[in-house]
Amino acid sequence: MSYFLAFCKSHRGMVFSQYQMLRTHRHLCDVCLVVDGHEFPAHKSLLACSSDYFKAMFKDYTKESKATVIHLKVITPTGLQNILDFIYTSWLSLSMNTLEDTLEAATYLQVMDALPLCSKFLINSCDLENCCFSANIASKYYLSDALEKTEKYIIHNLWALLQEDVEVTELLELNVKSMFNLIKADDISKVNEELLLDLVLKWVQYDRTRLLHAKALFENVRFGLLPLDSLRKLYTQSAVPLTPSMKSLIIKAINYHSLPSKQPLLQDKYSTLRNQKGWIILVGGTANAELVENVLGFDVYTHKWQMITNLQLKVQLHCTCVIGNFLYVLGGETPERLEGNSSTTSLSATNIVYRFDPRFNQWVQVNGMLEKRAQFSCCIVDNYIFAIGGRDSQQVIHSSVEFYDINRDTWTKSKELPFKIHGQASVVHNNRIYISGGKRGGQVNSIKDVYSFSKLETQWKKQAPMTIARFGHQMATVNDAIFTFLGIYEPFSDIEKYDPLHNQWTRLRPMTFDRFCYGLVVVEQTVLLLGGKKWQDSQEVATHNIVGYDAENDCWEEICSLAFPFCGLKCEVLQLSDTNENDNKQAKLYKIS
Predict the structure, then answer these.
(1) What are the beta bridge partners of residue 506?
(2) DSSP codes of every residue in 254-291
(3) Is residue 591's pLDDT more than 60?
(4) Which of 36, 303, 466, 578 has its CA 20 to 30 A from that of 116?
(5) 278-591 is classed in which CATH architecture?
(6) Where in the sequence of the chain do the CATH 3.30.710.10 domains occur?
């Protein structure tokens, strides 16, 4: 005996169509639902199949199972009409005006299949005018997907919402959970912390019952990003009562501002920029034979440029470093007026050190180095800045080494090098300083020598020499290896890698052309070389391209080009918020006493 099982696709839809036709003509309807005097004829069987509420109501033993008229309270006629249409047709008619009525009816009647459609409608309809309303509705009816998406929309568009009074009023009506998620967010763009604090204060005052949430909200305000005057004003305001723990957060931020030299060591959540992204910062050097004043930022992923600030002194042959997301610019050569001739300048080595704070776009002059230095090297060990070797304006070569104690804002002499040197490169690997190459004393030829130093040791230790003598070159640490790149007057383009564990050098793939006086920075495992000069027809020619070296695969790639040829620059990676793009005012200059 054989069997045949067949399926008709159209039958299911036909049954729904017939049910809708019966409902339209009120034929075979065995119940009438009444809401606020409005009557809705329906079929108990279909209601029970579509709604857990009606399925329980129409059990054999209930009074309603035999009733022909049932009065519903809680929901509205509009909500019931939309849900009945959905039950009979699978189509749900939605608009912002009827959404809450529909959700209320779907939830109350337990028509759960309608909820994902409402959630999708909220997500697709979210815009500046209704995003806060959408978040409130999603929160009220536990639409988790819609709540997550609408909150993200609010966070990413908060800068636009704060520009219009109408939208600000909508923000003040935002539900508690969404306001918490907003203030906790790390990716709020184009909005400074003062505006966020102002929003928190207004939101709390909008409904005095929200005072219960003020403490938790304050714990997510980044008070270190607020100016000192704003902190003092906040501490003395009376609109929002401050608990001892809230006052403690403000006092901590005030103390943070009162110790400007120590700020790089005091970084925490309360002083970290929101929506920050790593930018390559180009500092100092020359362009078109002129010293560059502008500090530029470059996003290696989007190839986007932005103006960051202006240097306090035009400088070349200097050093830079970053601690706690503060940029330090040390020494170098800077223009100086000649005595008796106000129109003529010369370049003089300096010991001046400036520090740039990207949160407030401010420069601070910290205590200067003990020696005036140019063509020297610097590096960071345990948050101490080491300045090594170099020369002064009279071409006197240094063997001295000094380090900067951020906590005390002082420079102190360290163990001297066993020789005078300038034009060397330095790098740190496992808290040990390595220097390579350069020129000793008054010697003409560059050297291959490599030395290392640890704060736990009393002497500079000689290591295996490079295979190539280098001067004015650069070094970089990538993973567990040290790389040396091109210097000045090298007749080839070879680079090499040093293994600190085995004290061994290895030649790597050369660049396709020579290069010197370039900027160097490490992004992930790629070493970027920016600008610089090359030899062409026995002349130094400035170049404007950016090339990358993949340390893992030992290969080179051309990335993009600078807007103009740039030489002698120094590069660092600095975390910037996109609020910097909207506020490129001239940086203020302060002196730490």
Answers:
(1) 497
(2) HHHHH-GGGGGGS--GGGSPTTEEEEEEEES-EETTEE
(3) no
(4) 36
(5) 6 Propeller (2.120)
(6) 1-125
pLDDT tens string 97-145: 999 999 999 999 999 999 999 999 999 999 999 999 999 999 999 999 9
Q: How far apart are CA 37 and CA 205, in angstroms?
A: 41
Got the DSSP string for 307-318? Answer: EEEE-SS--BS-
Average of per-residue pLDDT across 335-346: 67
In the chain, CATH 2.120.10.80 covers 278-591
Q: What is the pLDDT of residues 497-556, one digit of tens each?
A: 999 999 999 999 888 777 889 999 999 889 999 999 887 777 888 888 899 999 988 889
- One of 3.30.710.10, 3.30.930.10, 3.30.70.20, 3.20.20.70 is the CATH number of 1-125, namely 3.30.710.10
Rounded Cα distance, 218 and 195, in Å = 14
What length is written for the chain? 593
CA-based end-to-end distance of the chain: 103
Distance CA 490, CA 485 (A): 11
Distances in Å between the alpha carbon of 69 and those of 63, 102, 106?
11, 22, 20
Q: Which residue has the higher pLDDT, 27 or 8?
A: 27
- CB atoms inside a 10 Å sphere around CB 94: 18
Whole-model pTM over 0.90: no
Helical pair 9-24 and 77-89, crossing angle rounded to 10 deg: 140
